[in-house]
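WP5 quarterly update. Target: EF-hand domain-containing protein. Source organism: Aphanomyces astaci. Length: 603 aa.
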Amino acid sequence: LHMAPTVETLEAILAHMKAHWTSDLDEQDFSCQFFHALFEITDEDGSGGLDATELQGIMEKLGSPMTDHDAMLAIAQYDLDSSGTIENFEFVELMKSHVRFQAFGSKHSLAGLDPNRFALRDAATGQIWHIPIEGRLEIHFVYEREAVLGMHDAKNRITDAGIAQLIRNINLQAKSPAEKLEMLYFAINESEILFSASQAYELLEQCGGLNKEVRVAAVSHALFQVITAKDAQRLVSTTLNLRERAKLKVDLGNAYAVIMGNPTAHFALDLVNRADRWVARKLVESAQTEKKMSIASKRGDTSQHMNWENFRNETLDGEKFVLTTSFFNSLPQCGHLEFDYALSHRRYEQLVKELAKDCVFIDIPDGAGQPAAPLDPVAKAKQRWKKLRDYVRHNQFLNMLNYARSHIFRIKNCREEVRLKLVQIETAVSDRYLTAEQASRIVMSMPSGFHGRVEAARVLFARLIDVGNFCEIFDLLDREDQSELVKSLGWLNIFNPEKPDRFYELDLSVLEDYNMAKILIRLAVIEEGDNWLDGYTYSPTRDEAPYPHWILPASWDADDTGKGEGPRRTGILRLVFTSKLEDGCIPDWDARREIKNRVLCGP
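Structure tokens (predicted):
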């Protein structure tokens, strides 16, 4: 690991690791457990986070001292939740990067780097091949594009040694910061060089890309080669302030949402434009990964066309068609492609656990009914400080929103003001996760005109850690905005069977609406009481009047086997669903939990 810990530190780490020791531990698992144990024995106050001073103390114990500047830079780069400290899993990522840097990227390792390490060699003899000084040389260069195996496949990125050599080559050739940056752009643009956030930061720092005058443009170039959305988020949050992020969003256009991992948006792509073609190809990588994850999730298909794709409302040159990932294998050279895209992946449980900071802290004494051991004054002071810090963190976001409501969100109800505010929201949350309650405050701070609230809700949809509560945001909107949001996201991505009470308008000719109708019909049949309030209607078409005195046929609850059972395949169904006891309804919670498997907020 390129470290020299003291014997006492090493013994303490290994003693802590024994609790989780397994016989099949490999090198990677060992290093991860090593860093987790190091974090836990260092976090003596149990705060769950390390500040810059504590981080310097750790590195000192490991025989790898860190300056104040390096410690603050590390906190800024790996503090994903902006708490001012780095938590356990963030610390592990920091230490992995530190180990790689010590091995390949530090000044010490570069000083001893063999200049012939990357030299061309004769395949037969293994000797270094030198370019002849005379004669005619004919070269056949064979290039095969490496398929991207996955959105998070780190094996596709360049090695730290490769980054070090690239920096070395640029420094040898360029004479000024401007030349260094120009050479960097030439080297990476439209190339197969993919790198992590820390590698991108190192490249920009060494090549003058972090200077204020060129920072936004330099980061923009680097983002196209960053391997994952998480790395893109880290790079942007580390290098740019909010104003610069907004400029970056405007400069990148359609590409911003895709690069930053939140492509839940409306796309209008000109297939003649090279940048738009890049967006299309990059988006299909995400779409293919999402499709596989959705199928493997064991929940129902929530797509518009019941094909597990996240593309919605697609048109090509104004004509409706069904867009799939296979379409991008032979992308037309021209045409106007327009569609909505809705992310379908869920926050993993461990991510929710790490990121959900809205908690209530309660003192629970050790032992059943046994009085807790008295604490010494120092321990009491630490405990009180921890509670105070947790309380401040808990209320920090709410305080920010209150300020935003009174200052930031005083905007005119005009198109340009709404568009500007949406850009600011998207850039501010691109590397943050929120609860539905927090997101609702942002959405309702927007003006209702020009679809301000709808677009804000769409931007925030994929940043929620509790997507099952998104329906609460939906219920705050008026009918017109709800209709727009359903069109862009889809009922099966919004709906939560445990909170179904609202108005529905379903077009049974659309597969997802048809499946949504089957869910509501099923609940109406199995639950006690009349869940559908009086006044529900069915119309043959959207323009025709509803059938008078229409009653839900019992046959509509049957499975659709193609023999006439189930709901009709055409027509408009309108209803208001209720679960209230005062309306005589008794929810069947077991059935609702089972139905949850058929929507996005399920397993």
